[in-house]
Amino acid sequence: MQVPVAESTSESQSWDTDAFSAEEQWLPLEMDMANLDLPEEQPTEDAGWGLPDQVAGELIGNFFDNVQTWLGFVHRPTFYRRYMRCAGQQATLIGRPTLSDDESFMIYAMFAMAARFSTSEHFTRTPIHDRGERFANHAATIKDSIIKTVEEPSLEFVQGCVMLAFYNFAAGQFGPGVVLSSVCVRFAYELCLDETDEDQLDEEGLAIIDMPHENAESWLKKEEKRRLWWSIWELDTFASTCSFHPFNIERAEMKVLLPAPNHNWHCSIPARTAFIGPPESAWNSLQKSPGQSTRAWFLVANYLKSTIIFQSRRSFRHGTISRCRLETALCNLKLSLPDAFHLRSLYLDADNHQDAMWVIATHLMIMT
């Protein structure tokens, strides 16, 4: 298991993984624990999670190694500093009694998503697809008790809700997933996630080009909200498209920049990205953006394709944009993809698999 460590000095780089090696992104765990200055703690059999410490630590590592690739709104170095402790050569999760219910809920949701990737003997007798169920049930129980009294949700609680909704969909539990997706949208608006980058728009709603430099800490907090917003947007898009219902999110009023490249996110290097434009010109959103990411391109493709599907269900009289114009925009998007999206030159390996998966997903989104 490895943990990303921020470099001390670096300029904003493109998302292309050739720009930096795996060693620059990841360092061995034992080196990272020293850099992160994790408090030392004696290992225990059970820190209140219903799991041996070693297994709990492994699940957290599995989440960041396998789930964070496509559900990337938890900043790994920050999480480790806050919730992990050094026990010998291992990073262990702090005890549940020391955490709030919101934080415990989020971590149980992480367990649910990560359990299928575990190689621990603890899960030997449990089928892979069932390993996360008990953690999801724990998370749901905590969520139900919180939601009865919550007034303004914490960021950790909303993150947990998003993870649990994704788990529901991945487990084939469509009904609970749809309900929880709607809850996530409501909470997103309560936290004003849809206005995360309102300060980067002028009075006419156009992006301000010459924005002052943003410090790393402030940018990191905003990027966390951006990534959470886009994950909620994906939930809403998926649930609405599959159920033939209108979107819960008002797409024309989103004031949120697309997510920055993962390297910038992991290493806390501020990068300016772009807003998604109106459907007909959305394909051009990232053309001049200095901080392009494969995930951002995928989101643009998803935005266009889901808009086409939504418009095709409406009668001609109620349609605001013709299907022909939207399909033209989708073709323009395909033609405008960066060189790194050329499938003939794409080779999967340990260093580029995250970006490569988004490249493949983007092409599938456009073609299907």
Automatic annotation (TrEMBL):
Query: What are its GO cellular component terms?
Result: nucleus
Where is this protein localized, as stated in its record? Nucleus
Give the Gene Ontology MF terms in alphabetical order.
DNA binding; DNA-binding transcription factor activity, RNA polymerase II-specific; zinc ion binding
Task: Please state the protein's primary subcellular location.
Answer: nucleus
Signal peptide stretch: none
State what protein this is by name. Answer: Xylanolytic transcriptional activator regulatory domain-containing protein
| PANTHER family per UniProt | ZN(II)2CYS6 TRANSCRIPTION FACTOR (EUROFUNG), ZN(II)2CYS6 TRANSCRIPTION FACTOR (EUROFUNG)-RELATED
The Xylanolytic transcriptional activator regulatory domain extends over: 177-265
Q: Which UniProt keywords apply?
A: Metal-binding, Nucleus, Transcription, Transcription regulation
Spans traversing the lipid bilayer: none
Source organism per entry reads: Cladophialophora immunda
Q: Which residues form a coiled coil?
A: none
UniProt record, GO biological process = DNA-templated transcription
